[in-house]
Amino acid sequence: MASILTATSLPVDWHAHTTQAALAAAAGVVTHLGYFIRGEHHNNGIAIATFYLSLLPLLTFAQYQYLGIGLLTSAAQTGLWAAAYVVGLYTSMGIYRGVFHPLRKFDGPFLARFSNLYHSWMLVEKSDNYRLMTEWHEKYGDFVRTGPSNLSVNVPEAVKLVLGSGSKCVKSPWYDASLPLVNLHSTRDLKAHELRRKVFNKAFSPAALVEYEERITPLSNLFCEQIAAKRGSPVNATSWFKYFAFDAMGELGLGESFHMLDQEENRWVPDLLMAGMADIAQLQPIPWSTPIIHRLPFVGGGARNFAQFVIDQVEKRQKRGSKAQDILGFLLAAYEKSEKKDADYQWLRGDTRLTIVGGSDTTATSLTFIFYYLAKYPDQVRKLRAEFEPLLAASGKDHLDPKGVSKAVHLNGVIHESLRLNPPIPSGFPRVTPPEGLTIADTYIPGETTVVIPLRTMGRSEACYERATEFIPERWYSKPDMIKCKDAFAAFGVGPFSCIGRALSLVEMRNLIVKVLTRFDVALAPGEDGKEFMEGAKDHFIIEVSALQLVFTERKLV
Which of 191, 297, 311, 412 has the most crowded Cβ, counting Cβ within 10 A? Predict the structure, then answer.
């Protein structure tokens, strides 16, 4: 055994070792300049890691087998080469990113220019990227370098140029995080997106929305019955709006309510969703790590558990057939007409996941913020009632019809104002600039730069809105001068990738707001000032809010 380890004992040739180390370091530099800075490699993380991990024992064995060097000496020499290679690779990266990178002139945190790991590390404790972006923009200006090739841009002109229909920007590598799962939101292929959107258009047609509202109304009524049963006691409004939104999503999206409003059995589902989103969101700055993390058994459990939940919902829905009028029914109909290849099934799974996420938590969070403002500003409730009660009386219905919706300008203003201040996706949608680059507000951004527009930061910017941090719904109809740049509002996204479920989400919110305010007064619970609610929100790509204690009391009609 000792002979195998030591084998031939050769005199130490320090000159040869130095030369070999220099060559290994040079190889690291060449790898960086010739490969890693060219094109996208985020989906090759496992292949690259496997290659390097396999190369080390192969080099060690080759020295032992063909050069007669002992295993220990061979391993030590391989380790020297590996260390030199890594030093060369990362030295090249550091010098390039710090001195020669096209984004070198943009200001931002010093360490962020060298690695996206810095940005990711800053999110570990609080997961509050929306707040971090606001702090960085206040410190560094409208254009902030948040990573080696990443910029956050907080100027209103950027919305159309980066996200609009005519934009040449494309979705960033982060959208590949769920591969092989793919959906309408995550696909980076514009043609594939256009084809898939046609399937969703059937599910969100005007006729379908009318039918959906008829099915939403009983859920709104059930919500009110459950709140009435509390008899004016404080309730965790955050949870109850989640129960409503998830039941609506189950009914309209999956064809079967979760019955969270009247049963406790499935109330664990919202936490499962958020755990899955948290695992993905924290890796947004470092998309190359996602394929690796997802294969590690001791991390990423939330994402895996949520993925299995999605599979279970698809299988349950398949057993009932595709004829029912719900979103997944339309997706299943499209799947049945396809060749049913694995790629088709991944689309089905992916779009089911999108339906669950987009149709539940974002609506619930938006409702929670809206009722926070209504509880804080009672005059807004009086204005809303003065507006919608005559409209209900004129229509003879218990919810606003399309004609009534068009006249409910203050109701729509309340919703838009809350979304402006608290967009469901607060840190925006990452995009990559075209090869020729992009000019925004007289500032040239080089090509192949990942750009994001921090929507929450922009929504509270005085450059976009007068008295930007105040809740003033009238700015959306009677005081338009308070909106300095209409293009800055992008709570539902803009352009070809805007939210397909926007209309349905608005239907749900209007329906419940009218139902609740028709029957209840709303106020902050004793001891609740909203501070923790407003400041404790977490950014998991979609925002997660903490408990908000509200009191709903039956109206005393005179």
Answer: 412
pLDDT tens per residue across span 246-282:
999 999 999 989 999 999 999 999 998 888 787 666 6
Nearest by Cα to 161 from 438, 429, 445: 438
Tokens representing 279 are 């695992």
Q: How far apart are CA 277 and CA 271, in angstroms?
A: 10
Tokens of 168: 């040449």
Q: What are the residues whose beta carbons fall under 8 Å from the beta carbon of 148, sequence distance 6 or more?
A: 97, 101, 103, 112, 113, 114, 115, 116
Cα(173)–Cα(147) distance, integer angstroms: 14
Is 499 within any annotated ligand binding site?
yes
For the CA atoms of 309, 312, 318, 319, what is the dihedral angle to 10 degrees? -140
Whether the CB-CB separation of 56 and 82 falls below 8 Å is answered with: yes
pLDDT in tens, 410-463: 999 999 999 999 999 999 999 999 999 999 999 999 999 999 999 999 999 999
Distance separating alpha carbons of residues 259 and 535, to the nearest angstrom = 31
How far is CA 435 from its chain centroid? 25
Beta strands in 32-189 (DSSP E): 143-147, 150-153, 170-171
Contact yes or no for 156/462 (Cβ under 8 A): no
Angstrom distance (rounded) from CA 283 to CA 301:
14
Whole-angstrom Cα distance, residue 213 to residue 219?
A: 10
- What is the set of domains in the chain, with CATH numbers? 2-100 (no CATH), 173-554 (1.10.630.10)
Q: pTM for the whole thing?
A: 0.91
Nearest to 318 by CA among 278, 345, 339: 345
